[in-house]
User: Fold this.
Amino acid sequence: MEKGNTKEQILDVSLDLFSIRGFEATSISQIANAVGIRKASLYSHFASKQDILDTLVDVLTREFDAHSIFARADWDDPAFTQDKKGMTPEAVGAMVKGQIRYNLHDPKISKVRKLLTIEQFQNETLKRIQSKQSYEDVLKYNTGLIRFLIREGVLRDEDSEIMAAQFAFPISMWMNLCDREPEREQEAMELIDKHIRQFFSVYGKE
Assistant:
């Protein structure tokens, strides 16, 4: 097997195992067996299990920054907002549910989220990434969205950060529910619809 492909396979398998068992509970032998190589062969690609995790974190952080809607969004940029003029509650709901479905069903994003959930209390680096991705980026993105909707005259001009928290964090809770119990996705989506309609009912301009 080509060395480059083997290294990528080790990373993919490690993410699979880390997202189910956690980092500490996964051994080098388990990773090697899952890849189908000898333990000694794995060490020709990575110096240690920590080296695998560090490489995963570096690769996945760069991918997140390049592709995540939270990292790429700029609600003050006319080029970003030009197709978002005149957004209705229904349009916002469709946008949010599309983002959620992507995050729930993209295999790599889903596994990374589970890995961060497991390891956030044991690994300082992963704790910081978890705080950034699940709190800071979410709040920044939704504060930008709320301020945009205020400028558009859709929502009343109140504390945009608090409005963003009230809007976003119940949705994050329902997404976490779907991670634990995937069979409840339809229920979560219906609750998100009701939540968004009520949010606009409370904060929408007359």
